[in-house]
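Tokens in:
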């Protein structure tokens, strides 16, 4: 009996193929897009770093799910490999179950293989005109887990940069990995 090539099994699709922006970005349902490739010259002290992080945070902010508060936030983090990871806030009808943009970005960073945050940008529009929106207390602590107190955080809205802070200024005398006898990535 002659044997030919074996037919390839077909994998059922979970839904229709992505279209528009999702298709061009290579995003499929249930699949996290990879972190952006590191440019050779991206350095946290370079103004281009701030521009790139703020642009990424602005872009992801448009995807925030904030039906209850209407307060959309985007965050972008630079990891130790020069890759940018983004996250937006996701609200939930059971309010404590919502997810802050910074926490979502940290999850993307860790899922992408990063272990250290070297720069950050947060974009939100405050009801207090021209004042930057700061990370909440919980997110300051989450950032501290993977970042040193000298972490640069750029704060912006949709039009302009409203400020820059260091994590140590937002979370002085912080509790970190070294306090529990561990040498964390940002100790």
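Residues out:
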């Amino acid at each position: 009996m002659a044997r030919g090539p074996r037919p390839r099994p077909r994998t059922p699709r979970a839904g229709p193929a992505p279209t528009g922006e999702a298709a061009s970005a290579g995003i499929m349902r249930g699949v996290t897009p990879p972190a952006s490739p590191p440019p050779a010259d991206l350095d946290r002290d370079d103004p281009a770093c701030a521009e790139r992080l703020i642009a990424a945070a602005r872009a992801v902010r448009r995807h925030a799910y904030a039906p209850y508060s209407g307060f959309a936030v985007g965050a972008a983090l630079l990891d130790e490999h020069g890759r940018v990871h983004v996250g937006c806030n996701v609200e939930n009808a059971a309010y404590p179950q919502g997810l802050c943009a910074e926490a979502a970005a940290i999850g993307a960073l860790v899922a992408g293989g990063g272990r250290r945050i070297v720069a950050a940008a947060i974009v939100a529009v405050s009801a207090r005109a021209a004042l930057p929106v700061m990370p909440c207390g919980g997110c300051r602590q989450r950032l501290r887990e993977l970042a040193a107190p000298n972490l640069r955080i750029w704060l912006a809205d949709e039009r302009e940069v409203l400020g820059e802070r260091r994590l140590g200024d937002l979370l002085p005398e912080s509790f970190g990995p070294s306090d529990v006898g561990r040498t964390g990535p940002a100790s």
